[in-house]
Design a protein that fits this description.
The complex is a heterodimer. Chain A is α/β, with parallel strands linked by helices. Helix content of chain A is 45%, strand content 13%. Chain A has helices at residues 3-28, 48-53, 58-72, 86-98, 114-120, 127-130, 133-139, 145-155, 177-182, 200-210, 258-272, 285-293, 314-317, 359-373, 376-383, 407-412, 418-427, 446-462, 468-482, 492-509, 511-526; strands at residues 33-39, 76-83, 105-107, 156-157, 160-161, 164-176, 218-221, 241-243, 251-253, 277-278, 298-304, 329-333, 346-353. In chain A, helix 3 packs antiparallel against helix 15 (376-383). Chain B has one domain (71-289): MetI-like (MetI-like fold, Orthogonal Bundle). Chain B has 13 helices and 2 strands. Chain B is flat and about 65 Å long. Classes of the chains: A alpha/beta, B mainly alpha. Chain A binds chain B through residues 94, 97-98, 102, 111-112, 116, 120-122, 216, 224-225, 278, 280-282, 284, 355-356, 445, 447-448, 451, 454-456, 458-459, 462-463, 471, 477-478, 481, and chain B through 51-54, 69-72, 131, 135-137, 154, 156-159, 239-247, 257, 261-263.
């Protein structure tokens, strides 16, 4: 064989072999997925040793969960791309989205509402993966009722699911046991506490009794805004928007209904007649919580019961009052509302999936979310004292049974008194009201409607001599300019289904309210079918 | 007949021009990217339904129609104009008076007084402190009123008082006085001597010499103040959030709420385009009718 022929044949053989290996490799290689996610503050920058040294155990949870996930799912790893809470996450997220570099999973909170997020195109419909029978069996049996109700109410629009929820915390009244006891208000055990199943009248009386202008004490610290979750508004059976009876539009503002007038007047009277509320249009959550309540100016404040209270991670403490870690305070359920109304209200983080992911990435993202928020991720959180879904309430004394010892829990102190357990059991009697979105109902421009209601609320809580009904009528006329549309997707049948379910809810949980308030309002305002 | 410049002069002029362009080029690029380009993009977004993910859709004049039909539009403009007029009336004149009076003092005192009057104060820190002073229950002002036996006020919670409350923190910001002092120091002494010879007293000199000579700088500062006050955002956002009701919501706040709270970027940008033209019209009027060249 000549030299040239030899080299020619050798080259041909090598090229053929290389091509075969390359094609074969591509054929057998699995699609690898990398999910970019957001993390809690500090998790992506500090090492585990630094976090432990600083006592930031809370920040260890996510890296731990992520590490175990990555170990068990090498083809669908997660990677933290940015971290932050609240406003920082919002700004970060919008920037990432606009630059085309969005994470695979992020929170819904930066967007005005679930429906707005759908309209903006920033949220994936994950129904097909959520309904996967394997995932259902693996995860959904473990969800607590609180979490399940909140998830259904907040993340479903009709039959479509748009995300998962985390850290679902019910709302209550955080109160000063010592002040109540001083005012002669205590329970059968002699501990300062409001009566079980206290009413709005009791609430108002207690606020007056513990108000002491000489000691600069107010009965209640109230934010200068109506939060979406955790105010007294639902105790009055308020409907912020109602169907349009004329049929010209879909919705009208419900601000002038007797239930809304009742709520506003009640609050106004507590501020100006009883002088038992410390509030102001300029007071947000921070001022009320840390500025006034922590400075011993208020005896009560409406706040969500942190499900993670057993997690004493240092960086989380700043979100709680120092009174959380003493015997001076406790939580009670929100007072029973008009006609016996006691809807369970909760607050939780809502996590959604990037719609631009491939199907494989979306499937992995959904499974990761379920793993983190419902599955094994929760076991890790329990081990660090951070309870969420497995135990229905964080003060379940048996929640830690069968788990390995977590030595740092004892050293940080663990203060759950019987009062907490008792109050939690009262809260457990409450049932969440079904939300409109579960029945495929939504309101476009809802945030603008809310804006108008907030404006009226601020006027009412800051002006002594005000005609509440007139102010609400003015706000309604502004809100209605944002509701001047007809949405063909919102049919009378859908509205009928929703109000039927709501009626059943009221009939079961608050029969007086159902008979004396809901039914008349239904006939006069809600019924468009 | 005008002599044509020779080659050497032409070359020198060309070189000077080149150096000039090179010197301002970085600033031009910076201004282009961060100043003019966003304005151009805003004009485009105002005609779109802008989506964060996915393509935006052209909607013609829809955003402008929504903005003009918003019942809050006259409210926010009224609040903004009221704030601007009140702010100019109370805070524009004070630094001029301070600057004039300062220069009447002994030279040794001028340095001390300049230090005392013109200490830089952080705007945002000042706003937060004033917010605390306005607190209905614990604020300094109500403590003083109570101590004097007077009824307390609700300050930021009072719809008829809230704009005044937002204006007052600006009273202590005397920094523009430094610019007036520089202008005053440039007035020739001979003019004052002539005025004295003509029989002018202290106020006469101020009226006939000082103020006319300061007119160009006052015109410029007035223009800048109007633009700045019309764009008020920090004070109402931090102190009141636009409340009570809508009593202190400004135009820029409304733009912010529509664009960043409701994520209706098209509507927010449409309002900002309208506002842009209004401000341009104000600038044009001011430049045309407020003659600055006092020697002409």
């Amino acid at each position: 064989m000549s030299k040239n022929k030899f080299w020619y044949r050798l080259m041909t053989a090598m090229v053929t072999l290389s091509l075969t290996i390359a094609i074969g490799g591509v054929a057998i290689a699995k699609e690898k997925v990398v999910l970019k996610i957001c993390g809690d503050p500090g998790a992506e920058t500090a090492t585990a040793a630094e976090l432990v040294e600083a006592g930031r155990y809370g920040s260890l949870i996510n890296p731990w969960v992520n590490a175990v996930w990555n170990y068990n799912h090498p083809d669908a790893k997660v990677k933290v791309v940015f971290s932050g809470r609240l406003k920082h996450q919002r700004d970060n997220l919008l920037t990432h989205l606009a630059s085309g570099n969005a994470p695979a999973i992020y929170q819904l909170s930066p967007f005005p509402s679930l429906h707005d997020a759908i309209e903006l195109g920033v949220i994936a419909d994950i129904t097909k993966w959520i309904n996967n029978p394997e995932l259902k069996a693996k995860y959904f049996d473990h969800m607590s009722p609180i979490m399940r109700d909140y998830w259904k109410n907040e993340m479903w629009l009709g039959d479509h699911c748009y995300g998962m929820v985390k850290e679902v915390n019910p709302f209550g009244v955080f109160y000063r046991k010592d002040w109540l006891k001083e005012a002669g208000i205590f329970n059968a055990q002699g501990v300062g506490a409001p009566p079980d199943h206290w009413t709005l009248k009791d609430f108002r009386e207690i606020a007056k009794k513990i108000t002491d202008s000489k000691k600069e004490r107010w009965g209640l610290i109230l934010r200068g805004e109506i939060p979406k979750e955790g105010s007294l508004i639902k105790r009055f059976g308020v409907e912020e928007v109602i169907p349009d009876k004329s049929g010209k539009y879909t919705w009208r503002a419900g601000f002038t209904l007797p239930t809304m007038v009742d709520f506003m007047s009640f609050t106004h009277d507590m501020i100006f007649k009883d002088k038992s509320i410390l509030t102001g249009t300029e007071y947000g959550w921070g001022e009320c919580w840390h500025g006034f309540f922590d400075q011993h100016r208020g005896g009560m404040i409406l706040e969500c019961l942190p499900a993670g209270i057993a997690n004493f991670a240092v960086e989380d403490r700043k979100y709680f009052s120092p009174l959380h870690f003493t015997d001076a305070a406790c939580y009670a359920p929100l007072p029973v509302g008009r006609g016996g109304l006691r809807p369970l209200e909760s607050y939780g983080q809502k996590h959604i999936v990037n719609p631009l992911l491939t199907d494989a990435e979306k499937k992995a993202a959904v499974e990761y979310l379920l793993y983190d928020l419902v599955g094994k991720g929760q076991i890790f959180r329990k081990m660090s004292g951070y309870l969420s879904s497995e135990a229905r309430f964080p003060f379940n004394a048996h929640a830690f049974d069968g788990l390995p010892d977590a030595p740092w829990m004892k050293s940080l102190g663990y203060n759950v008194t019987p009062d907490y357990i008792h109050e939690w059991n009262l809260i457990s009697e409450e049932k969440a009201m079904p939300s409109a979105s579960r029945y495929g109902l939504y309101v476009k421009n809802f945030i603008a409607v809310r804006d108008a209601l907030e404006a009226a609320y601020r006027m009412i809580l800051s002006t002594a001599n005000i005609n509440v009904e007139e102010e609400l009528a003015k706000a309604a006329s502004i809100a209605n300019t944002k509701l001047n549309y007809k949405d063909k997707e919102i049919t009378p049948e859908k509205l009928k289904d929703y109000y039927t379910v709501v009626g059943e809810y009221y009939k079961e949980t608050a029969p007086d309210f159902y008979k004396n308030t809901f039914q008349p309002l239904l006939e006069k305002y809600y019924k468009v079918w | 007949m005008r002599k044509k410049p020779d080659k050497a002069v032409k070359k020198q002029l060309a070189h000077i021009r080149r150096v000039g362009w090179v010197t301002i080029l970085p600033q031009l690029i910076y201004q282009g990217i961060f100043g003019w380009f966003p304005i151009l993009v805003a004009f485009i977004i105002a005609f779109q339904t802008f989506r964060i993910i996915g393509p935006s859709t052209f909607t013609g004049w829809d955003n402008f129609k929504i903005v003009f039909s918003d019942p809050l539009l006259p409210v926010v403009f009224k609040n903004t104009i009221y704030y601007t007029i009140l702010s100019l009336a109370l805070t524009f004149v004070v630094p001029i008076i301070v600057a004039i009076l300062l220069l009447e003092m002994r030279k040794s005192m001028i340095r001390v007084m300049m230090l005392l009057w013109f200490i830089p104060i952080s705007g945002m820190a000042g706003i937060i402190i004033w917010k605390m002073w306005y607190n209905v229950n614990y604020g300094l002002f109500n403590q003083i009123l109570s101590a004097l036996g007077l009824p307390t006020l609700r300050w930021l919670n009072e719809p008829h008082l809230v704009i005044l409350c937002l204006v007052l923190p600006g009273l202590i910001l005397f920094a523009p006085g430094l610019i007036y002092i520089a202008s005053l120091q440039g007035i020739p002494q001979e003019l004052y001597e002539s005025a004295e010879l003509e029989g002018c007293g202290f106020w006469g000199k101020i009226w006939y010499v000082t103020l006319p000579r300061m007119r160009p700088i006052i015109a410029m500062m007035l223009l800048l103040s109007v633009i700045s006050k019309m764009q008020v955002f920090n004070e109402p956002m931090v102190m009141t959030g636009g409340g009570p009701g809508y009593a202190s919501r400004s135009v820029v706040m409304q733009i912010y709420f529509r664009a960043f709270q409701s994520l209706k970027f098209g509507e927010g940008t449409a309002l900002s385009v309208i506002f842009f033209f209004i401000l341009m019209a104000l600038i044009y009027i001011q430049r045309k009718y407020f003659k600055e060249d006092i020697d002409k």
